[in-house]
């Protein structure tokens, strides 16, 4: 006997063998046991979800001589005849190739004759959306009032193409995509029965690639087993056969994109091409990878939505924190457009390379998304101070000048710019710090452009408290940027001040920002991050600054106070 494909060999023959469509199976079984059988059914849903299989099981069940809980026995002469395709009571029609009016007229002539055996004549019309308009019109009257012994079962993957006049005459059943755990469980049963050795991770990837289709999952498994027949089917074997890419590669690609390293992206893509990976599959998988990152960055308890190991989730959380959700959405849009273009292109590699250049060089595009990312890049450089450093202007942006946004005039002897504040800078917008101890924060510049400064107050702190204060102030912008979310937006222009042993206070100038930042959950998140990143157990509290409050206090240690190491500030006319 010739070999039979797995999806044909293991097609379910009873309702119990159907996986992932319990809501439909239970309804049909109840109709059969209660003898409340309809005359027309419409099965709609994506490919490979069991529409035709359930239709055939239902056709045997309504004619079975000894039904068992609504399922056919598959032992009586009627069931065996239908299984062997020898019964005239069950007629299966492919509407893709029999879609004319004359084909429907033949059905109308046949339904006049009752079944020679069994109770019902069942017509299964597959891909019914392919019928012509005339064929649908010819079917309407028969579909609405067929003889009592006739049942129509219409199956389609495109229910939107079915005329409303047909829909209104049928009981509609929507077939769901089969979940990955259900697919993995079924594949495990079949491989055990077929004595096929396969890794669980390999089955999980096949189930994911099947996209909710049991038939696709069995076909992919058949393909992989044939290539590695008689050997253990591993995860790497499956990737090799399907031309897919391991998820760790996506992490490397994403980090290269975040680092704006176009060269690294192109080299990694070159490696994939040389390995024979299918670029269309790579694009689709990378879109899903970006989608998972976006969920981790925006949704609460997103781990429940992702079917992957804890190690992978932990790694992806780190990567999700590297970019803003808005930027991730832009990446997804770029690759979604690429997915549509690459299907019909003969230069797939060029299109993929162009997409990576778009991601790493937003200045080369003029659309809304790229402009937003370019603004975000400028803000990031303002936060970490690299934008203000002379000679460090990024490609595509103007170098900071004496009065440019990134290069404000520097008062002599301070070594610090007097321009706008960095996001999350512990100094207020009108302050700048002295060199030396690094804590000086004199008062505002007046409108005239000269630094008319009053003497700041000096406060002595224990050495340990001063070290903690200096460390957090120096790292404050990076801390809130890495935490991201509501912390990043609420903690702009905040001031960090000492509040006792191993305790710091965050001073807010905005009541709205204070309402967010004063929450215990937010402050606790900062405490956990500082302890994990710097090994310091520092508690944080928050307060709202008073009207006209100054933030120019200089915190020094006893040794600095005794040695009187204070740098004079020189005034300079511009």
From TrEMBL:
It comes from the Bacteria. Keywords: ATP-binding, DNA replication, DNA-directed DNA polymerase, Metal-binding, Nucleotide-binding, Nucleotidyltransferase, Transferase, Zinc. Residues 37-179 form the AAA+ ATPase domain. InterPro entries: AAA+_ATPase (IPR003593), DNA_pol3_clamp-load_cplx_C (IPR008921), DNA_pol_III_gamma-3 (IPR022754), DNA_pol_III_sug/sutau_N (IPR012763), DNA_Rep/Repair_Clamp_Loader (IPR050238), HLD_clamp_pol_III_gamma_tau (IPR045085), P-loop_NTPase (IPR027417). Its EC number is 2.7.7.7. It catalyses: DNA(n) + a 2'-deoxyribonucleoside 5'-triphosphate = DNA(n+1) + diphosphate. GO terms for biological process: DNA-templated DNA replication. Coiled coil: none annotated. CDD domains: AAA (cd00009), HLD_clamp_pol_III_gamma_tau (cd18137). SUPFAM superfamilies: P-loop containing nucleoside triphosphate hydrolases, post-AAA+ oligomerization domain-like. It holds the Pfam family DNAX_ATPase_lid. The keyword Zinc applies. It is an enzyme of class 2 (transferase). One of its GO terms (molecular function) is DNA-directed DNA polymerase activity. Residues 393-451 are annotated as: Disordered. Belongs to the DnaX/STICHEL family. PANTHER family: PROTEIN STICHEL-LIKE 2, REPLICATION FACTOR C / DNA POLYMERASE III GAMMA-TAU SUBUNIT. This is DNA-directed DNA polymerase. It comes from Candidatus Lachnoclostridium pullistercoris.
């Amino acid at each position: 006997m010739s070999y039979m494909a797995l999806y044909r060999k293991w097609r379910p023959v009873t309702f119990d063998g159907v996986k992932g469509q319990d809501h439909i199976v239970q309804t049909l079984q109840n109709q059969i046991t209660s003898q409340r059988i309809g005359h027309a059914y419409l099965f709609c849903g994506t490919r490979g979800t069991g529409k035709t299989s359930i239709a055939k099981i239902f056709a045997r069940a309504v004619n079975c001589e000894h039904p068992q809980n609504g399922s056919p026995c598959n032992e009586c002469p009627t069931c065996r005849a239908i299984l062997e395709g020898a019964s005239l009571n069950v007629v299966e029609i492919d509407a893709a190739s029999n879609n004319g009016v004359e084909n429907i007229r033949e059905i109308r002539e046949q339904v006049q004759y009752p079944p020679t055996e069994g109770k019902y004549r069942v017509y299964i019309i597959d891909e019914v959306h392919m019928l012509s308009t005339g064929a649908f019109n010819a079917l309407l009257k028969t579909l609405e009032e067929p003889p009592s012994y006739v049942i129509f079962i219409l199956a389609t993957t495109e229910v939107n193409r079915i005329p409303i006049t047909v829909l209104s005459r049928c009981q509609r059943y929507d077939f769901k995509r089969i979940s990955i755990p259900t697919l993995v469980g079924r594949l495990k049963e079949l491989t055990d029965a077929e004595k096929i050795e396969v890794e669980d991770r390999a089955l999980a990837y096949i189930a994911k690639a099947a996209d909710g289709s049991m038939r696709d999952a069995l076909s992919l498994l058949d393909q992989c087993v044939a290539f590695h027949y008689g050997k253990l089917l591993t995860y790497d074997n499956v990737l090799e056969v399907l031309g897919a890419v391991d998820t760790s590669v996506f992490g490397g690609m994403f980090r290269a994109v975040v680092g704006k390293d176009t060269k690294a992206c192109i080299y990694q893509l070159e490696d994939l091409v040389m390995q024979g990976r299918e670029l269309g599959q790579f694009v689709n998988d990378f879109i899903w990878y970006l989608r998972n990152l976006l969920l981790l960055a925006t949704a609460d308890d997103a781990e429940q939505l992702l079917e992957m190991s804890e190690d992978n989730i932990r790694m992806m959380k780190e990567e999700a924190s590297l970019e803003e959700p808005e930027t991730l959405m832009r990446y997804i849009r770029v690759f979604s457009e690429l997915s549509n273009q690459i299907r019909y292109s003969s230069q797939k590699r060029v299109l993929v390379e162009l997409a990576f250049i778009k991601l790493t060089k937003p200045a080369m595009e003029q659309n809304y998304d790229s402009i937003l990312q370019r603004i975000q890049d400028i803000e990031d450089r303002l936060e970490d101070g690299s934008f203000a450093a002379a000679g460090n202007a990024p490609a595509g942006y103007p170098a900071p000048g004496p009065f440019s946004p990134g290069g404000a005039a520097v008062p002599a002897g301070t070594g610090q710019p007097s321009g706008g504040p960095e996001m999350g800078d512990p100094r207020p917008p009108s302050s700048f710090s002295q060199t030396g101890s690094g804590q000086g924060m004199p008062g505002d510049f007046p409108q005239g452009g000269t630094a008319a400064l009053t003497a700041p107050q000096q406060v002595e702190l224990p050495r340990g408290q001063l070290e903690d204060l200096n460390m957090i102030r120096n790292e404050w912008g990076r801390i809130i940027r890495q935490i991201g979310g509501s912390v990043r937006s609420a903690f702009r222009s905040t001031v960090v001040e000492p509040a006792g042993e191993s305790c710091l206070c965050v001073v807010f100038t905005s009541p709205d920002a204070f309402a967010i930042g004063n929450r215990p959950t937010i402050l606790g998140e900062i405490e956990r991050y500082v302890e994990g990143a710097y090994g310091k157990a520092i508690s944080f509290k928050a307060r709202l600054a008073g009207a006209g409050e100054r933030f120019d206090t200089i915190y020094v240690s006893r040794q600095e106070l005794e040695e009187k190491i204070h740098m004079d500030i020189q005034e300079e006319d511009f």
